[in-house]
Write a structure and sequence with these properties.
Length: 139
């Protein structure tokens, strides 16, 4: 039960602290609107792949990786010996597999002007793109 509480706390903390940074990512991506596609390439690097829909080209940047987070947990143990109940406490580290991901899609029209963007993923996955956007827009 304590493990479940710790895992839930970890996930919620990661999610809630990610909201501000994901909003920052949204803001930085919005600065690309009405710019030439080369601005996106300069800011984010070259895309992972592209899709074509009539006169619209969608450039897609994508990252997906896996990692392990070690969560410390405290547990109790009950034992009986000679009709006496003994409580024991011990600490252990529980590894939890997690996946980081981020996908950014930028749509451009036939004149190569950015007119749409969307993104999905988590703050850990999008961190690299956020750093690139911050670096690009800082000068």
């Amino acid at each position: 039960m304590k493990l479940l509480i710790l895992i839930t706390t970890f996930i919620l903390t990661t999610f809630l602290t990610g909201c501000v940074s994901m909003q920052q990512l949204d803001h930085k991506l919005s600065l690309l609107l009405d710019q030439k596609k080369t601005v996106a390439f300069s800011a984010l690097g070259y895309p992972t792949y592209t899709q074509q829909f009539d006169d619209i080209t969608v450039y897609i940047w994508q990252i997906k990786s896996q990692g392990v987070v070690v969560v410390p947990t405290a547990s109790t143990h009950l034992a009986t010996f000679n009709d006496r109940i003994y409580h024991g406490y011990y600490n252990e580290n529980t590894p939890i597999a997690i996946t980081y991901s981020c996908q950014i899609k930028i749509g451009v029209d036939k004149n190569h002007i950015i007119n749409h963007y969307e993104y999905s993923g988590d703050i850990n996955g999008c961190q690299l793109y956020m750093e690139r956007l911050n670096r690009y827009f800082s000068h």
